[in-house]
Amino acid sequence: MTDTLREGSLVGLGNPLLDISAVVPLDFLQKYAMKEDDAILAEERHMPIYRELIERFQAEFLAGGSVQNSLRIAQWIIGKPKVAVFFGCVGQDDYANILAEKACAAGLDVHYQVKCDTPTGTCAVLITGTHRSLCANLAAANKFTIDHLDIPRNQALIENGLYYYISGFFLTVTPPSIMRVAATAHARQRPFLMNLSAPFISQFYMAPLLAVMPYVDIIFGNEAEAKAFAEGQCWPADADLREIGKRLVALDKLNPKRPRIAILTQGCDPVLLVQHDSVQEFPVTRLAAHEIVDTNGAGDAFVGGFLSQFVQGKSLDVCIRCGNYAAGHIIKNPGCTYSGKPEFVE
Description:
The protein is α/β, with parallel strands linked by helices.
C-alpha cells in the first residue's frame, strides 16, 4: 500500500441494505415470479418474501447494498481504515444500527442520512445452487436527498475525494445527487466510476443513465447488463460483447483527454478491458463446483478489488487481476463476505 493513501480518498454513494440471505428451492422463486440471477426492485407482491425467508429458511443477516459491499471489499484489501467514505440513507431502527456497526468494523467511514418515518432497506438474497436472485425493498434507501450532500461536513468529504464510485442502482433514487458528484469529479479532474448494475436500469432508467454517462471515466458491467444497454440503444442485435464495449467507450464524453474505459465481466469467461483502441482479455480462474459456495456479491467484490488497487495508482491490469482475485474469494464464502487476510499478489 502506498504511504500517501489518505482517509477519504474514495467516495461512494449507494443504497445501504440489510441482506436477508437463504438457500431456497426453485419453486420459491416461481412463487414470487422471479428467475435465477434476477436483480429486481420489490413490488407489493414481493413484500411477504422477507418475513417468509426468516420464518421458513435459515436466513442470515448481512450488511449489504452494492456500493457498500464494494467499498467493504476495497477496505479489506487496502487494510487501512477510512480510506473509503460511504453515503446512503437508512431508517432510525435496529437494522440501521447493525449496518453502521458492520460497515465501521469493515473500515468504512459511513455518513448515513436518517429518515425517522421509513424502515431501513432490505434485500432478499435467494440462493439456488450456484445462482442467486436479489429482490430489494429500498425503503429508506429510496429516500436519499441531495440536501444531505449540502451539509458542510459532507460537502467537504465529497470535495476531498480523489476517486468516486456510484452504482446504476442509485439512478432509481436520486439522479441529482449523482450529477452533483459527477460534476465535482469533472471539475477537479478526478476519476468518476459507475456500474450498469442490472439489466432493468438500462430498461427503465436509460434517460438519467445517459445524462451521467458523459462524466463516466470507467464503466463496469456484466454480459447481461451490457446487452440490456445495447438493446436500449437499439444497437445491432448481433453485436457481441466486444462490439458493445467499443460502442460504450465511444459515447460522448465531457473530458476527451481521459478516454472512457469499459470493464465487462462474463462469469467464468475472461474479463474484457475495452479502451478506445483495444480490447484485452483477462482470464478468470475457474473454481471447482465444490468450491463455489455463493455467487452473491461476486460482481460487487470484483469492483471492490479493482478499486483497492486503482486508488493506489496501480495499472489497469493489476486492478483487474485484483478484481478477479476478490470475486474468486467471495464466491467461496456465504454472501458478500471474506475470511482471513487478503492474499492478492500484484
